[in-house]
Structure formats: structure tokens, C-alpha cells
Write a structure and sequence with these properties.
binds zinc ion, alpha/beta, two-stranded antiparallel ribbon, 304 residues, 10 strands, Arginase, Chain A, 8-stranded parallel sheet
């Protein structure tokens, strides 16, 4: 397994009392370091703007860039504070995701410490700390390399509404989200199953607040894995959020630290079944910076 981190994430220099801050990256990097795991630091990826353009419009990119240059304090919504370097950091987060995806072409599993995260970003609007849809861009990248059927599995405590929107009518990408519901951002009910040709290619597993290991593991074993096996993806992308951890300041779930290890085991077994197809994990949420590094390590450990 290879690890990638974004050396420009610190340019998205938000105050430390805002939950989505640089201490998140530090927590993960120092834990992986302590475990002796090598991290590749990424700033660029070839044609990164063209790849972003597969998902987001050029007018959106331009609007975001100008907002940062102008010195705006927020972009599109109150939960998207920005500073001058936010655009650069968000582009580098995409570059990190793409570097991780590119490395899977050589047969490795990869994990990218992507900050800012991406799963709430819509094609033309920033939301929920997210600016560019890292997972969606990676899905398009893998498709262009011949991995035509991509599964995106999102276990962040919040519904991945942005990823869902981007592929809602697209049967080539199967999107699965397990999340707290009702909760931010409001979407993610069972009834949302896709649209048109994409009908049946979105699966939402909403769980009530205070759900714990038992409910999540049952959801994986009884729904996520069987559905993935029947979709038979040629690549798997995981939107790995760690905010369903019981002490997360934003989430309202009760997952133990061992639950993330169990998730990792589940993916390891799935990959065995699917004969080692590309697997990319991307960081989404997770705001307990004392524990985040350990939670990420628990998740990747079975995949090492
Ligand atoms: Zn989240």
C-alpha cells in the first residue's frame, strides 16, 4: 500500500478552532510516520485542471479562484471559509487524489490524505468544507484508463451528496453511502436510488444517530458487499471519513476505533474476491485530531 499527502494543504490555512484544519493532516502523517510508513508528498499532477474539468465547470473553477484572490472570507456557503491559498490547496488535494489513483495502475492499493475533502462538493457549488470532488475526479480518471465500472463507497458520517449528484444518472459509477440520517446535508434517504439510466446505481444506507459497530458491520455485510459483488466494479474508490468515530466533535455515531479496522478487513476481502482491482482510499471527514491518525491507520492496516 502506498500513501500520498498534499504538501500544499497548509495553504488552506483555516483557524484551529474551525474543525477542518491542518491539524488533521498532522495527526495522520505523524501516526503513519510513527508506524514507519512512507508518505509521498504531492504538489502537482499533469493536466490537473483538465481532470477537474471532467467533473466541474471552468466557470466554477474561475469563480473559486477569483474569490480566493479577492480575499473573500467565505465561498458559496458559510461552512466554506477560505483564505488566499485555498484554491491552490484544493487543486493540490485533487493532484494528491490523482497521484494515488495513478499509483494503483501499477497494482498497488493507495490511500491519499486529501485536505480539503471533497464529497459534499457539487459540480458547480462548494459545500460542507469541500471544493472539488476528489472521488468523482478519480473515478473519471480510472475510467479513462480502462477501468470502466467504478464503485465509490462512502462511510463518512455525512451523506456524500456531491458524489451522488455528479453520478446520479450515470450507470457506470455505483455510489454507496452509509451515513447518519437525518443529518447534514439533509440528503441520503433510501428512496434516492439514481435517475434515468442511473436508476439503481446509487445506494443510500441511512442509519439513525448513535448507531455503532454492530449496525455498520451489518450494513457492510448484508448490503454493501453483496451489492458491490453484483455490480462487479473494475475499480473501487473509498470516501473514507472518520467522523462516525464515537468521540468525533461533529458526528453523532458510536463507532469504536476497531470498527475502522473491520472496514479495512471487509475491503481486503472484497479485493481478494475481485482479484486485486485498483483500490484508492481518499480522506473525507474526521475531526478528532487526537485520534484521527490512529483511526486512519486502523483502516489501512488490513490492506498493508
Ligand atoms: Zn463528514
Amino acid at each position: 500500500m502506498k500513501f500520498f499527502a498534499n504538501s500544499l494543504s497548509r495553504l488552506h490555512d483555516l483557524p484551529l478552532d474551525f474543525p477542518e484544519n491542518e491539524l488533521r493532516v498532522k495527526s495522520i502523517v505523524s501516526y503513519l510516520d510513527k508506524e514507519g510508513l512512507f508518505i509521498e508528498w504531492v504538489e502537482h499532477f499533469p493536466e490537473v485542471f483538465e481532470w477537474i474539468g471532467k467533473v466541474h465547470s471552468s466557470s466554477y473553477m474561475e469563480r473559486f479562484k477569483s474569490s480566493c484572490l479577492r480575499g473573500d472570507y467565505i465561498f458559496d456557503s458559510y461552512d466554506n471559509p477560505i483564505v488566499g491559498g485555498s484554491f491552490k490547496a484544493a487543486v493540490a488535494s485533487v493532484a494528491t487524489s490523482l497521484s494515488a489513483a495513478n499509483a494503483t495502475l501499477g497494482g498497488d492499493c493507495t490511500f491519499a490524505v486529501t485536505r480539503p475533502p471533497g464529497h459534499h462538493a457539487l459540480s458547480d457549488r462548494a459545500m460542507g468544507f469541500c471544493f472539488f470532488s476528489n472521488a468523482s475526479i478519480v473515478a473519471r480518471f480510472l475510467q479513462s484508463k480502462g477501468f470502466t465500472k467504478v464503485a465509490i463507497v462512502d462511510f463518512d458520517v455525512h451523506h456524500g451528496n456531491g458524489t451522488q449528484e455528479i453520478f446520479y444518472s450515470d450507470p457506470s459509477v455505483f455510489f454507496v453511502s452509509i451515513h447518519q440520517y437525518p443529518f447534514y446535508p439533509g440528503t441520503g434517504s433510501r428512496e434516492e436510488r439514481g435517475w434515468g439510466e442511473g436508476e439503481g446505481y446509487t445506494l443510500n444506507i441511512p442509519l439513525p444517530a448513535y448507531s455503532g459497530d454492530k449496525e455498520y458491520i451489518a450494513a457492510f455485510e448484508e448490503e454493501v458487499i453483496p451489492e458491490l459483488l453484483s455490480f462487479a466494479p473494475s475499480a473501487v474508490v473509498v470516501s473514507a471519513g472518520f467522523d462516525a468515530w464515537k468521540n468525533d466533535p461533529l458526528g453523532g455515531m458510536e463507532l469504536s476505533e476497531n470498527a475502522f479496522f473491520r472496514f479495512g478487513v471487509t475491503f481486503m476481502e472484497l479485493l481478494k474476491n475481485l482479484e486485486g482491482i485498483p483500490f484508492v482510499g481518499l480522506l473525507e471527514g474526521g475531526y478528532d485530531t487526537d485520534m484521527l491518525g490512529k483511526l486512519v491507520f486502523n483502516f489501512v492496516r488490513p490492506l498493508l
